[in-house]
Write a structure and sequence with these properties.
The chain has one domain. It is an alpha+beta fold. The model has no long low-confidence stretch (mean pLDDT about 90).
Length: about 120
């Protein structure tokens, strides 16, 4: 079973997680909300800030993956393997990595959750 660690306070993230829950008819994904009270990142070997900076997932082997690879694992688990294969093509892969990197850096700002502690404004 693939486990995804998502920010349950992120409106865009929650929307995608809801869709994936509906598509996960075979129960191949474990959904873990890192914003939930009582969530402890320590057993994963990473801190909460690291999990908040980029989406993470855990393979059945226990290995952590992050970024676009998490989405590949999620969409393969719900039956979109052929689409996932396309995301591994040169060029497509680089574009997706760059787009996700930009989104991850700007996620709090894009979802209206910036504070002086969470977003640094350029001087």
């Amino acid at each position: 079973m693939f486990e995804v660690f998502f920010d349950g306070e992120c409106p865009l993230c929650v929307r995608e997680i809801r869709m994936l829950r509906r598509l996960d008819r075979r129960g191949r994904i474990r959904f873990t909300d890192i914003a939930a009270s009582g969530f402890d990142a320590a057993p994963l070997g990473v801190d909460h800030a690291t999990l908040m900076a980029r989406i993470h997932g855990r393979l059945p082997t226990g290995e952590l993956v992050e970024g676009v690879e998490v989405f590949r694992q999620l969409y393969a688990a719900v039956g979109f393997g052929p689409l996932v294969a396309l995301t591994r093509l040169p060029g497509v892969s680089h574009l997706l990595d760059a787009a996700y990197g930009w989104f991850a850096k700007n996620r709090l700002r894009l979802t209206g959750r910036c504070t002086s502690e969470t977003c640094v404004t350029p001087s």
